[in-house]
Design brief:
Blueprint: H1 2-24, H2 28-38, E1 40-44, H3 49-52, E2 55-56, E3 59-60, H4 69-72, H5 77-80, H6 94-104, E4 108-114, H7 141-152, E5 155-160, E6 184-185, E7 190-191, H8 193-214, E8 220-223, H9 236-249, E9 254-255, E10 267-268, E11 283-287, H10 305-317, E12 320-326, H11 336-352, E13 370-375, E14 378-383, E15 391-394, E16 401-406, E17 415-417, E18 422-425, E19 436-442
Helix pairs in contact: 6-7, 6-11, 8-9, 10-11
The structure holds ligand FHN.
């Protein structure tokens, strides 16, 4: 019996090694393929700051990001941690978050497993400062999210704040609880490698290891150091240790460059920033629907659906992804304003998604009426601003074009072949009030 068991173990181990080495052998293109195909993801900022809703003890957050309230309002850990007593999200339903992402046409979810406040939003054995051990709710939302993501074919990804940690005495960023007078000046922190090393060893590495080992296959480990590493207490060696660990445990998992190392897989722009030109290496914009990431009852500055869709299409037209945030309330519900906008984008994506998924830049000048995207032999003209002339000129030699159609109905659209360009007669009315897409099939 013992022999049979050990033989079985061997088979399992060999199969396991086979899987790992297959992933380890993936080329960069193979690793990035799902992400390039996806183009559109959901960011979720949810934590103790969601309880505060942008206000603490009658004081509004002194900054536009509500998840920064602990730092901006200099709230000591002893007070901030009490927010955990009120964290009881009775309306949390992983299924509804995931189906919202799916309805919007998003293909992956990146959720804050730990933000700068140091509070783990999953069941961590490293410290009790987590959602299971410190809240009356006592549940691990990542377990439900994992199930719902698998059910709906959405990739699950984790955000982890590896640099800023305002809870651990060694983490960067907290100079209101901890004496930092011996440190050098950094950016958004003070620098002290000796102070930082125990945080890295005792909390950061073990917690990321938990995330990589407890929740199945992850799409991205999303890190957040938006300043240069030299202005922080993080060392190159520490980042190498983190990246090696991810490569060992989940070789298929991609890493964004805000980890602070050139070894990461793709670039994250600054928040809500958009390049003016095509960028050929992989990149994304993390973006907010209003101004904050974490929920704030004071932020009503909602972007319109049209603006959000323009930013998504604009990013794809320059070769990038769009990671759009929702900040659920502490009760687990998603603000109606976000739900509405995501559903409207979803309606458009359902009809026009082929011009987004796996699409990229077209190597044409940006037209004044909108954007171009391209996939294989298909060129897509996204007409956001309907021209008064009822015509658009497209810089593609007429002889290169096989057919021109409205994407949604496949109805042919009239066009004249010029020498170096085409003139297209648009239909009398836009087919979609947000963005009418004309598809050119190239020879
Ligand atoms: O400080 C964070 C912020 O709270 C938020 O998480 C964003 C998302 O990109 N990242 C940092 C600022 O860039």
């Amino acid at each position: 019996m013992k022999r049979i068991l050990s033989m079985l173990m061997m088979v399992v181990m060999v199969a396991g090694v086979g899987l790992d080495s297959k992933a380890a052998e993936m080329s960069q293109d193979e690793k990035m393929a799902w992400w390039r195909e996806a183009r559109f993801g959901m960011f979720i900022h949810w934590g103790l700051y969601s309880v505060a809703e942008g206000e603490f003890e009658g004081q509004k957050c002194r900054g536009k990001y509500a998840e920064w309230i602990m730092s901006k309002n200099k709230i000591p850990n002893a007070k901030y941690e009490k927010l955990a007593d009120q964290f009881n999200p009775t309306k949390f339903d992983a299924e509804s978050w995931v189906t919202l992402a799916k309805e919007a046409g998003m293909k992956y979810i990146v959720i804050t497993a730990k933000h700068h406040d140091g509070f783990a939003m999953y069941d961590s054995k490293v410290s009790d400062y987590d959602v299971v051990d410190s809240t009356p709710w006592g549940r691990d939302p990542m377990v439900d999210l994992r199930k719902a993501c698998d059910k709906h074919g959405i990739k699950l990804c984790f955000y982890y704040s590896h640099w800023q940690d305002w809870r651990h005495p060694g983490g960067d960023g907290n100079d209101w609880d901890f004496d930092r007078s011996q440190d050098k000046k950094g950016s958004y922190c003070t620098i002290n490698y000796e102070r930082f090393a125990p945080y890295w060893r005792e909390k950061c590495i073990p917690q990321v290891r938990e995330l990589l080992t407890k929740y199945g296959e992850l799409g991205i480990m999303w890190f957040d150091m938006w300043t240069s590493r030299q202005k922080t207490s993080v060392t190159e060696e520490q980042l190498d240790e983190m990246i090696d660990m991810i490569h060992d445990l989940q070789p298929q998992c991609i890493i964004n460059k805000r980890i602070g190392s050139g070894r990461a897989d793709y670039l994250t722009m600054q928040d809500n920033r958009y390049p003016s030109k095509i960028m050929k290496d992989d990149w994304e914009t993390p973006a907010t629907i209003n101004d904050t990431w974490g929920y704030s009852k004071h932020d009503d500055n909602w972007k319109s659906t049209r603006e959000l869709l323009g930013l998504l299409v604009g990013n794809v037209s320059k070769g990038g992804n769009y990671l759009l945030n929702i900040g659920p309330k502490a009760d687990g519900s998603v603000p109606e304003e976000s739900v509405l906008r995501l559903r409207e984008i979803g309606r458009w994506m359902k009809a026009n998604g082929e011009s987004i998924y796996g699409a990229s830049y077209a190597d044409l000048e940006k037209p004044e009426w909108g954007h171009y995207t391209k996939r294989d032999r298909n060129l897509y003209a996204h007409v956001f601003d309907w021209p008064e002339s009822g015509k658009i000129e497209v810089d593609v030699p007429g002889n290169d074009v096989e057919s021109v159609q409205l994407l949604t109905s496949r109805a042919s659209v009239k066009f004249k072949r010029g020498g170096k360009s085409l003139v297209v007669d648009l239909p009398a009315e836009p087919a979609d009030e947000l963005d009418t897409v004309i598809r050119f099939v190239l020879k």
